[in-house]
Design brief:
single chain, 173 residues, alpha+beta, 38% helix, 14% strand
Length: 173
């Protein structure tokens, strides 16, 4: 298997289990990959590119680090390894997140307990009232969950907690 930015994390670690520590060091939010249930769920959603983004790393540099450790030649240009933009919305806070959330999901706690926040959010969508929204709190930008919401044509908005910049607030509707 050739390692690229599009390589799924589950496939990467299944083929190269020795790269697990490198991934966790690059993006500590992925430390829960040691949990087999989370590895199967989050690992199938997340790509090497997403790990780099969450870890605040250059995707090409991270891909090359993994390739070197796996004994593969480095990719030498952006043309060989295209990068995509992080999903973003307007800087303006959307009107639909005014008031209190209908549901609050502590993603950091769930991951520590071996649960998957994406599954919980998908369950809560079914109970969401027309004016309601879900607030997900995490200690990292939950890019795989944002991507899943986008694929489901759901609205979302992400911001750092103004009271604690180490916490991320992601709103789903």
């Amino acid at each position: 298997m050739e390692i690229t930015g599009k390589t799924r994390l589950f496939e990467l670690l299944d083929t190269f289990p020795e790269l697990e520590e490198t991934v966790i060091q690059a993006a500590p939010a992925f430390k829960n990959l040691k949990n087999p249930v989370l590895r199967r769920t989050v690992g199938k959603l997340a790509t090497v590119e997403k790990v780099a983004q969450i870890g605040g790393l250059d995707t090409l540099a991270f891909v090359n680090l993994l390739r070197r450790q796996a004994g593969q030649p480095e990719v030498v240009s952006q043309d060989e390894e295209p990068q995509t933009e992080l999903p973003t919305l307007s800087e303006d806070v959307p009107d639909w997140i005014n008031g209190e959330p209908q549901f609050v999901v502590d993603g950091t706690k769930m991951l520590a307990e071996g649960d998957v926040p994406l599954n919980k959010i998908n369950e809560l969508y079914e109970q969401l009232e027309p004016a309601g929204y879900i607030l997900l709190t995490t200690n990292f930008e939950p890019i795989p969950m944002i991507d899943a919401a986008r694929k489901q044509n759901r609205r979302w908005y992400h911001q750092l907690d103004p009271n604690d910049p180490s916490h991320h607030l992601t709103y789903f509707k």
